[in-house]
Write the structure tokens for this entry.
Amino acid sequence: MKGLWKRAAALALTASLCLSSPAVALAATKTVNNFKELTSIFRDHALKRDLNFRIKFNISDKELEKHILGPDDDSLGDFWDGMVSMMDNPNTSDDADYIVGNLNWTNGLGKAINNRTFEFKLSFFETLPQTEYVNQHVPEILQEIGVQDMDTNYEKVRAIHDWVCEQITYTSSKKGIASTCYGAITKGKVLCNGYALCLYKLLVGAGIPCKYIGGKAGTGRDSGGHAWNIVALGDKWYYVDATWDDEDDRIPTYDYFLKGKKDFDEADPSQYHKLDYGYTTFFAKAFPVANSSFNPTMMDSTNNTVKIGSELPEDLDVKPVDPGTGTKTTYKAADILEGTYPSHKSFTLQVNKTQHLQLFIKDKAFDLVDSVGYRVRSGKENIKNIKNNGFDTDWMDDSIFTDLTFKGKKQGSVKIDVILKLTNNQQLPITFTGKIR
């Protein structure tokens, strides 16, 4: 579940690298003893646009596997959507969310050198000079919008949202600049993460707490990977999707403006937003989104708002928010699965031929699944080269599935459980039976 494909979805990977990547000397390896240290070191490297560095983890095997390396030992666990998103220094808007949104995941972020050391190889959509240009011009844009003359934060949020929708046009360009705030304010044509980063920079520049959010959208122009924001007004956070509010060129809509968890997608339920895994764990607890839309008539006269930051946790062992399944704590296969391959969970396989066993997971239930495993219940001697391929996605039909492969070794029968390990610590085995001829 925590493989790099899922992280890539948050960052609109139709764009390519904007920043040239000359050979860069490998920075000295640093050792971290907890996640605060990890966050701080990664943040410092990313702010300087260091492209190649190593970090050694003096962390327990259990925490290292779960949160950093992930189940395949070459993914990056749930570190990215969560901890990186919270490495926030209130004195700058260049870190935290801005780093997450500008990371180019096309070629991954690096590799495990051994079970204790990870070598990061980073690419960024926006260069340091381009970020400096953005920071120089954000005050000018806010002056143009007139936020200094507005009485409430709601007025400022609406005016900035309208400016973004009016000045920016969605593009399908594959240039790296199309994924940046720099591209938004210089070219006026960007992808969804360019919208979200621009809204983030302007709102934070106006003194309004804002966070960058990664996930998936429904169908249509933003199917698959998508990015949007949460914005704080009063004592709660609200969703804003400026990309989807820019349906008509230069004319903003408010279908996705300051919405809550229950009504974010009421304009078109078929195109619902789905948070990436990390945004459902401690991130969701640190920045809780309201249940329903913001009501400007209920804004108090003091115009108070929540603080932008939150104390970083020492570990990440927080269960995901249950995505709309009520208080249910035990699940059946029907709660999780859309189907299986083979469809009847039985198969006939020839010797030396490859068999795939797949579980297709309901999109709304995906955040309930922590990892996938397997066990051969019988007939182990009849198969060879069994491999757990983890989670994958088919962007053509927007399906998410697990995949187990093996070859027939000799004639006989076999029975295999593909096991979904859920976030409530439940293990849900799905049994496949087969004959090898």
